[in-house]
Amino acid sequence: MINIIRSDFYRIFRGIAVYIAIGIMLLAIGVSIYMIQPGYIGNASVGDINNENFKTSNYDEVMSEYTLDELRAMSLSDYRQVMLKVTGYELDRDILGTNINLYYVFIFAAALAVTVDFSGSSIKNTLTSAISRRKYFLSKLIFVNLMCLIFLFANTYIMYFANIIFNTKQFSSDISEITKITVMQIPPVLALAAVLTGIAFITRKTAVFNTVAIPLIMVFQLILNIVAAALSVQEEYLHYELQLMLAKLANNPTESYMINAYLICGGIIVLFYTAGWLSFRKAEIK
């Protein structure tokens, strides 16, 4: 099992795909740092949570100097100059609150670890050796989780030091606080890894996997919002969706919220790993 994990690490860093994933991560960090505001993909209500961070700053005072039309007409460099007037704003905390962006980086890890083996038929050779399906499944599970955690912590510290270099300490939190937030976000990150690993073992082909995984977050959020509106679900329950969970965990969550969030993450992990294993166990390997 260790040999499979080692070979996956060797293979992933020998190919170009992982560097594309790293490039996507760095691009997201760069845009957010330059704009002095985090960019995110998905549910717009994340911004409402992250804007809590602005309450301790002079953001409203700075923005009141401009009309909405003036702000919309500004170039990126002009908007940056406006944001540089803001004080007391912890940009790095808000960037961590939009870590759902890493989901699109995690897709590469699951695809390279699992679906590439099926698409290239190399899994047949692996399973005909002394490796059982159980050991194969566990090795891929461990590898995807490790890669997602590597991406998570790399994103945190690259972002943290880049923010200090380009925006000074004015927009920075203490490194211990940033580390604490990252550790708190580990359960939802592992839940995302479980979702992708489970889907990878169910679909087994790279093209099918990408078709399902890439739009999954936004499609799920759309369905969730429609169901919540139809059933008049209270907004607080929607904050346990994984994107909003990551945002809440970056913004001083209550102890009760953390417990509930981690229980939901545990349920997601068990559900998707069980589904992936049951599908893989019965699959015909060609």
Write the layout of secondary structure elements.
Elements (H helix, E strand, L loop, with lengths): L1 H11 L4 H19 L10 H5 L8 H5 L4 H6 L2 H8 L7 H7 L5 H17 L2 H6 L5 H35 L7 H10 L1 H18 L2 H8 L2 H16 L3 H4 L3 H8 L5 H28 L4
Helix pairs in contact: 1-10, 2-8, 2-10, 7-10, 8-10, 8-12, 8-13, 10-11, 10-12, 10-17, 12-13, 12-17
Task: Write a structural description.
The structure is a single chain. The protein has 286 residues and is mainly α. It has one domain. The protein contains 17 helices and no strands. The protein has helices at 2-12, 17-35, 46-50, 59-63, 68-73, 76-83, 91-97, 103-119, 122-127, 133-167, 175-184, 186-203, 206-213, 216-231, 235-238, 242-249, 255-282. Helix 8 runs antiparallel to helix 10 (133-167) and helix 10 (133-167) runs antiparallel to helix 11. The longest helix is centred in the middle third of the chain and has 35 residues, at 133-167. The model has no long low-confidence stretch (mean pLDDT 88).
